[in-house]
Design a protein that fits this description.
Layout (H helix, E strand, L loop, with lengths): L5 H4 L12 H12 L6 E5 L6 H13 L13 H8 L5 E5 L6 H9 L11 E6 L6 H12 L5 E7 L7 H4 L3 E4 L5 H15 L2 E2 L1 H11 L3 H14 L3 E2 L1 H8 L4 H13 L2 H13 L4 H20 L11 H10 L2 H16 L7 H14 L2 H18 L6 E3 L11 E3 L14 H7 L4 H8 L1 E6 L3 E6 L11 H13 L4 E6 L7 H22 L1 H10 L13
Parallel strand pairs: 1-4, 1-5, 2-3, 3-4, 6-7, 11-12
Antiparallel strand pairs: 8-9, 10-11
Amino acid sequence: MSYQVLARKWRPRNFNSLVGQEHVVRALTHALSSQRLHHAYLFTGTRGVGKTTIARILAKSLNCETGVTPTPCGICSACLEIDGGRFVDLLEVDAATNTRVDEMRQLLENAVYAPTRGRYKVYVIDEVHMLSNSAFNAMLKTLEEPPDHVKFILATTDPQKIPVTVLSRCLLFNLKQMPPLAISTHLAHVLQAEGVKFELPALGLIARSAAGSMRDALSLLDQAIAHGAGEVEETQVRAMLGTVDLDYLYSILESVQRGEAGELSRIATEMAVRSLSFGAALQDLAALLTRLQIEQMAAGSIDEEDPDRARLLALASRLSPEFVQLAYQIAIQGRAELALAPDEYSGFLMTLMRIHAFRPESVADVLSAVGSATRRNARTQIPKVTPPPLDEPVGKAVMVNQQIPRSDGVEALGWHQMVAELQINGLAKELAQHCELRDISESECVLRISPAQGHLQMKPAPDKLRQALSDYLGRAITLRFELAQTESETPAATVGRERLQRQELAVASIEKDSFVRDVIESCDASLVESSIKPIV
């Protein structure tokens, strides 16, 4: 007897053996038990999640010789013929090869005739979204009011392409992608029944590669059995799939944490020798960083049974949450840029070096070096910008050398110019620009920020601002924030006011242009001010 592939041999024959679609099974079972049968069903979902399988089980439930039941016997002639694909009253149609209206009309012409062998005539139309608009229109009337002995079961991977007129006539069931745990558990059951030796980690690799499809998982399992000469071993499956050993990814993050760039290069070279997929490596690295971030934000999320739990917890405690976020962005961006790199190895290695370059210690070193240069060139006095009086027209500013009180008697630095010269960027710069300097002493700086901008105090912005101030002034400074409405104009407010002033001047200049005035008067036109942008 010829060999039957696992995906066909282990296709579920009843609802009890179906894996991962409990919500659909529950609804159909209750409907069959109570005899509340709809005339049209639509199953949606990605490949290999059980759409056609459920359609055949439903056809058996409707035509089993024991009666309409959620548990067909599986041994009567109707059940056996449906399982064998030769039941005359089960018409399975591939819409991808029968897209035209004439073919659909010919198919539906026979719907009026009573079933030959069974209780119901069941039409299973697979990939129904491939039908033409004319074919959909031809089936609408029959789909809405079919004869009592006809049931329609439609299946599709792309429900967005199905007209709403068809969707409204069907009961819609959305089949979920199978979780890896459910897939690996089912694969273990299959291998035990087949008498094949296996290692559980190997099944986990297959389950991840199947991407939610049980059919793909069984096909990969067939391949793994052949590749491993009748056994399913983790090392053999890794070699077959070209998947990245998680140990590489942990080693990468541990090397980054220790600042060992040479080790990163060695790991990348070893992966290249094994011909591993660098795109998959960056994808898995992003997934690992996601797990780390979840553990950092919601402690205790790692399963007690996870074999990598100790290693995950160690990395989660050593790497800052902000760096994990940055490394995640670098990883997914690096994966997107692999096609633009000279070769995948170079793109992967440069991504690792980018993560290494932006590790927290290196950023602190850069800030320290820049701060030393800044201290050598810092001036002792710079003016402070104060806001104009409330009755002053927009566009005017008052510049005074107002000094900030200092407990050590030293002349204060104007906050606006100080912010402009600080070596900061990103969230730290935004925080500084929205603050008002209230007091500065030998060891402490007091800043006031309005409640509306209080979210800018999110870490690590305050720490970066404190470090930049310490470098600028040449001494250690602690920061203290007051959450209250600012009394003077902040640097951000100054920038906004100057931007508004430039915009108003630009609009006024356009309005005064003689050509523009002539066009407005002669053509009854209007000026769209939002389209005007100042040149400088």
